[in-house]
Amino acid sequence: MDSRVFRNAMGKFATGVTIITTKAGNETRGMTANAFMSVSMDPKLITISIDNNAHMLKKIKTSGKFAVNILSDKQQNISMHFAGQKEEKNGIDFDFIDDVPIIEDSLASVVCDVDRYYEVGDHTLFIGKVMDLYLQDGNPLTFYCGKYGCYQEVEYAN
Fold first, then answer.
1. Is residue 59 part of a domain?
2. How far, in Å, CA of 150 to CA of 76, rounded?
3. What is the pLDDT of residue 13?
4. Calpha distance 118→120 (Å, rounded)
5. Cα–Cα distance between 136 and 144 in angstroms, integer?
6. CATH code at 22?
7. Does 152 or 104 have the greater pLDDT score?
8. In terms of pLDDT, which residue wins out, 146 or 87?
9. Each residue of 46-89: pLDDT tens digit?
């Protein structure tokens, strides 16, 4: 099967948009990702998937910590910045929780210690033990078929 066809099929799954952040030494690093999911409520665990060629891979392994920042529909420019699609002229403002960088004004920031990781195919799956959270109200930025979108509530007939 052609890789492009496979990628197009995977793009049919609508997702939210996240920025994975970490700090290794004095370097704060971020990358746009939509490969994120919750794994367990007890203990509280999540998973992220990082390409084995991504600079972020070594940074997370070095720091042993990362955050998943779930973006609002007002943060498309930040997603594009970390995806290398557009330079954010005003820079990116970070807050910190336990010395882990988080993206200001995200809908949620989930701060994790690396519990374990597995190399699977051309990606590495990191299981993160949730150590802290930040939440705020708003609507999510979405991604579908290679395009950004926004949440639309669906009303159901009674």
1. yes
2. 10
3. 82
4. 6
5. 24
6. 2.30.110.10
7. 104
8. 146
9. 999 999 999 999 999 999 999 999 999 999 999 999 988 887 66
What pLDDT is stored for residue 125 in this prediction? 97
Query: Considering its fold, how many domains does the chain have in total?
Result: 1
Q: Residue 11 domain-assigned?
A: yes
Residue 58 counted as domain residue:
yes
> CB 107: neighbour CB atoms within 10 A?
22
In terms of residue numbers, what domain contains 26?
3-148
Asked if residue 20 is part of any domain, the answer here is: yes
Cβ pair 68, 110 in contact under 8 A: yes
Number of alpha carbons in the 13 Å side-chain half-sphere of residue 62: 14
pLDDT tier for residue 154 given thresholds of 50, 70 and 90: confident
Report in angstroms the alpha-carbon separations of 135 from 2, 7, 38, 104.
40, 32, 16, 11
SS3 sequence of 78-134: HHHHHCCCCCCCCCCCEEEECCEEEECCCCEEEEEEEEEEEEECCEEEEEEEEEEEE
